[in-house]
Amino acid sequence: MSKSDSHKPVLLAEVLTGLNLQSEGIYVDCTFGRGGHTKAILNHLGVQGKLLAFDQDPEAVQAAQAITDERFSIIHSGFAQMHKLIESRGYLGQVNGILFDLGVSSPQLDCPERGFSFMHDGPLDMRMNPESGESVAEWLAKASMRDIANVLKSYGDERHARRIARAIVAVQGELKTTRQLAELIIAAVPPIPAYKKAVVKHPATRSFQALRIFINRELEQLQQVLPQVLKVLAPGGRLVVISFHSLEDRIVKRFIRDCVRGDEFPIGLPVTKEALNPSLRAIGKPIKATAAEIDANPRARSAIMRVAERC
After folding, report:
1. Stated pTM of the model
2. How confident is the model over 189-227, as pLDDT tens digits?
3. 124 Cβ contact partners less than 8 Å away, ≥ 6 residues apart
């Protein structure tokens, strides 16, 4: 089984329901990955339907180019440029559904050369697009102890951020592989008591997650793109977001909440509900994977999906 075949799209049935697919609609998959959601959406579209996908990972783009379907096109770009890219194709205000499946795809995690996982030894990279920007190893080689600690604490909620940062600075410039960093973290933090080992995450989990989020500017890009959704979606169009981290989900939750509330008025000023001019309405409650899906795909354990509709 190839890596692409082993990739299981998270909350697939729920995504298709949340998008409220119309056979002749226009849809955008902002994170193609290995195309699990994309292919399922295409299967539900008619001959006039359109599906546009983005991905900044060259390997994902290469996998997408194997899809020979005139209704589908792939753009090698991060989703922060969505408004401009959609406008250039004449779809602005006409899109019936937008999907964000945030985080890292299984093929990325499973590839040692990408450096995302401490479970495999490989270059300490972690870039979604290895052709752009600096790697984690390059950043750690020059960052201050304070900056490293702030990243580990802010993006990973790492309790021992200062200890780990101090250990990294002590060997600054020498960390080149994921195994080296994982072993350094294990040595830097207090040992896990034997009775907790069965339930406690690997000591490097939070640090690797924090460094990946930081080096790829994942939260900043999400904050940049969400307001663009309001210009891209057609009235009645759906926004579907799957998050895997509490910081991501908090950004999405607050964005939808603010759009549902509508325009702000001075406290005490009597206004009608219609005058608030909400731009989105929330659809249902947040959705999580079932126990059966988590058993089949452990990556779904931390997934949470939110759906909203353009007013």
Report:
1. 0.90
2. 988 766 565 555 789 999 999 999 999 999 999 999 999
3. 115, 135, 136, 137, 140, 175, 176, 177, 178, 180, 181
